[in-house]
């Protein structure tokens, strides 16, 4: 049975349009997919502590108790065939909750290693979908701000070996509910043509 890891980090929780779309995507990857949700707001991760920092830089054995949470989060990625990440843009970047998750998952000699001075991923590649929600625009004719989020996420996921990464951009959501509804519907219509999401039609999109 295909397994999907759904990573959520919006403070708006169920009211997040990106969160809603990401759930729809996870449900459509396969009719019988087993979906594991890692909600980084409902269940906040502990801030990094000295023991963790020392275990990482000191290359402690993976059974070191200080690495237990890191091991658990990496294990969740490893056991998933697909990743779906829903993230708001916060100050042009990923929210702090998602950055903290990355600080546990991107770990030297565990999820990446050094080869000739370059970082090389140790995790097996798997299709990874990222839904980005933003109040303003950073792509297209209406772009009016920087985007450090998507290039950063593409880069850091590549560091650990996740290269098949597809982005869905829900922009301009601060313009009100009509724009939110229209943007969501346009995204659903585009995703309906993506063979990964063929298990069921998206709401409001003809099969
Ligand atoms: C702390 C904070 C920082 C934000 N920074 C940005 C930003 O840099 N650019 C932007 O377009 N929107 C920004 N927003 C707006 C959110 O990206 C927008 O409300 C988005 O729709 C939230 O998505 P969500 O409902 O999935 O959390 C920010 C919102 C918050 C709460």
UniProtKB/TrEMBL annotation:
One of its GO terms (molecular function) is electron transfer activity. Its EC number is 1.6.5.-, 1.7.1.17. Binds 1 FMN per subunit. Homodimer. Belongs to the azoreductase type 1 family. It comes from the Bacteria. Keywords: Flavoprotein, FMN, NAD, Oxidoreductase. Signal peptide: none annotated. It catalyses: N,N-dimethyl-1,4-phenylenediamine + anthranilate + 2 NAD(+) = 2-(4-dimethylaminophenyl)diazenylbenzoate + 2 NADH + 2 H(+); 2 a quinone + NADH + H(+) = 2 a 1,4-benzosemiquinone + NAD(+). Residues 3-193 form the Flavodoxin-like fold domain. Its cofactor is FMN. This is FMN dependent NADH:quinone oxidoreductase. Quinone reductase that provides resistance to thiol-specific stress caused by electrophilic quinones. FMN binds at residues 10, 133-136.
């Amino acid at each position: 049975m295909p397994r999907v890891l759904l990573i959520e980090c919006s403070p708006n929780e169920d009211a997040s349009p990106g969160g809603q779309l990401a759930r729809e995507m996870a449900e459509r990857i396969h009719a019988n997919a087993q979906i594991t949700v890692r909600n980084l707001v409902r269940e906040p991760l502990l801030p990094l502590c000295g023991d963790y920092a020392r275990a990482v830089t000191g290359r402690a054995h993976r059974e070191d108790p200080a690495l237990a949470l890191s091991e658990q989060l990496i294990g969740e990625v490893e056991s998933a065939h697909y990743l779906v990440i829903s993230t708001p843009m916060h100050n042009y970047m990923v929210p702090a909750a998602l950055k903290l998750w990355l600080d546990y998952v991107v770990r030297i000699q565990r999820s990446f290693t050094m080869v000739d001075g370059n970082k090389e991923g140790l995790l097996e590649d798997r299709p990874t979908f990222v839904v980005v929600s933003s109040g303003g625009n950073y792509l297209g004719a209406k772009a009016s701000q920087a985007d450090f989020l998507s290039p950063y996420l593409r880069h850091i996921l590549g560091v650990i070996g996740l290269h098949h990464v597809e982005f869905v951009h829900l922009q301009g959501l601060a313009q009100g509910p009509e724009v939110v509804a229209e943007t969501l519907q346009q995204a659903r219509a585009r995703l309906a043509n993506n063979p990964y999401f063929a298990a069921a039609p998206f709401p409001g999109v003809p099969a």
